[in-house]
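Running this now, will post back.
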Amino acid sequence: MIDASQPLFFDDLGRRQVQADFSGGTLSSDGGVLLLRQADAALGLTRSLAGCFVDGRQQIYVDHSVAQLLAQRIYGLALGYEDLNDHERLRLDPLLATACDKADPLGLDRFNPAHRGVALAGASTLNRLELSNNQHTRAHKLAHDPRQVEACLLQLGVRCLPKRAAEIVVDLDAMGHRLHGLQEGRHFSGYYADYCYLPLYVFVGDYPLWAQVRTSDKDGADGVVAALEQIIPAIRQRCPQARIIVRGDSGFCREKIMAWCEAQKDVYDCLGLAKNPVLVAHLTPALDNAQIRRCLCGAANVRSFMEFAYRTASSWSRARRVIGKAEVTAQGSNPRFIVTNLPAQGFKDDLDKTRFTPDRLYEEFYCGRGEMENVLKQQTLDLQADRMSTHYLASNQLRLWLAALAYLLLERVRTWGLSGTELARATVGSIRLKLLKVAAQVRVSVRRVYVQLSSAYPLQALFRSCQQRLRALVPASG
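Update: finished.
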């Protein structure tokens, strides 16, 4: 049995003995969580999200409000604690308790005397929050309305858009989130060669608007039109003068999506198009020309672009503008295609009338969708949004929403607090490491919570600047 009170001895430093123990008192390794709280107050994220839940508990016995539970979970995700089990120790953190608006960060005001000294909720309480839509017992009384949560994410994301925007690009993507259990709705995907879910993500720049869990036995474009029917009006309400362009890879090149966009006012599309023999035949002269040019100049690869009208034999309702990329490399021909209804001559108000010519439309506009993939990498690598480890589909959907909201919160810290600094374009993982992971000592008295951040923290000026910018923001009503 290990005695926790015994000191830990390390190799000596010259004549000095190196000794450690766990008697530091109320310390935290996440001093930057106060910045998350400040950004949350300006965005109104947890207050808005709490309105999507129904609290059926007897309030006289409640220590943790719904808003506090959600703040604890979302802040934990932002700080890198994606597992509920992490909160068995995090619930002792006085600084996280302060960020979650606990009146007593030391937990001495708990209703049950046996729980006093532990300010925050444990893993079991947070787990009941996630499972309440699936379990109907006296312990599961925190059900949420999925449609309200879906609308909450959409409204919070749309609120970040500039009201006077002239053009909004809506990016679509689907990701395979692998499953390692017998989760509800699991299905084997031949593309990912594993059991997985196939969530639909919709972003505008860095702002998440949609995160929908889908089973992988469906087409990648399933549910896109229904999502756009909610997303586009929400954008219109925020940006009434904006032209909207829907952008996605060939997995979204479906007649129903293109026809829907074409039927809307000032809604356009630019989608990848899977190659087939007819398309390649249209592009063959350009491919032959590129092969000749490569042989003559000795370049590693040569590419050119051509435009033509194309219609499928039966699935498309009309002929559409197709751009073909004729590229020849050392490995051979690499033909690629996109389909769009964007005008080749540009729009009337465009200062640059050539931005939708074939080469620029493909290389500059369509390939720009790669930035969304970088954002999704942050979702999965930094926030573990693919941790679909509960049994129920509805609970995994809630986890995906919480991860998307955690990303939105960190994005607001980056935009509001770090613009013009060295972290202005940092990933959320870098922001967590450099801004949030700050050692702090917390002292709680009757009159104040005194947080002493590490004197050796190397980015003190940046932290101070970020705090002042966030502090100056007007709190949202929620």
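The chain has a mean pLDDT of 93. More later if anyone needs it.
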